[in-house]
Amino acid sequence: KLNKWLSLLLVTASKDPMAPTLMHTALTRARLMEQLGHGLIDKSEYDNLFITGAFSMLDLLLGVTMEQALEAMHLPEPIIDALLGRGGLYAPFLELALSCEGGDVAALADQAGMLGISGDQLNRAQLAALAFADTMEI
After folding, report:
1. What distance in Å separates the CA atoms of residue 138 and residue 120, rounded to the nearest whole number?
2. 44, 110, 128, 133: which has the highest count of C-beta atoms within 10 A?
3. What is the C-alpha separation between 130 and 64, in angstroms, rounded?
4. How far is 31 from 70, CA to CA, in rounded Å?
5. pLDDT digit string (tens) for 60-98?
6. How confident is the model at residue 22 (pLDDT cuts 50, 70, 90)?
């Protein structure tokens, strides 16, 4: 829980004028990934899914490369792997979250299908994630 709270704090630290929009997107990804993990991965991994989504725009928020942003952090390897595009346990959830933001319906369906997530499950999770991000004061 502390890591989740710290990730929210870090994501909201940027002074970039685009930061509120980027933070909203990052928080939506974070909550979406956490929601989609329910029943698919061990409950102890949910916070790490959230952190992966929350940090997925850290490079843009801080104006540095993702490698530089993660350099001084001591994050679990699966989070780092997903954020650096090296795959791992959380990568399919991040890819699905990214697909939700894109316009490629076929890619979205493929990504959801690989995780065994139905369109209805995805829609409900997306709405819940957007509602969560909307309630945050950013």
Report:
1. 29
2. 133
3. 26
4. 20
5. 888 889 999 899 888 999 999 999 999 999 999 999 999
6. confident
Distances in whole angstroms, Cα of residue 121 to Cα of each of 36, 38, 88, 126? 8, 11, 23, 9
- Per DSSP, helices labelled H in 56-115 are 58-62, 66-71, 77-83, 91-101, 105-115
Q: Give me the phi and psi of 57, to 5 degrees please.
A: -115, 15
In angstroms, the CA 134 to CA 87 distance is 29
Tokens 């993990």 correspond to 37
Residues 6+ apart with CB under 8 A from 72: none
How far apart (Å, rounded) are the C-alpha atoms in residues 114 and 78? 18
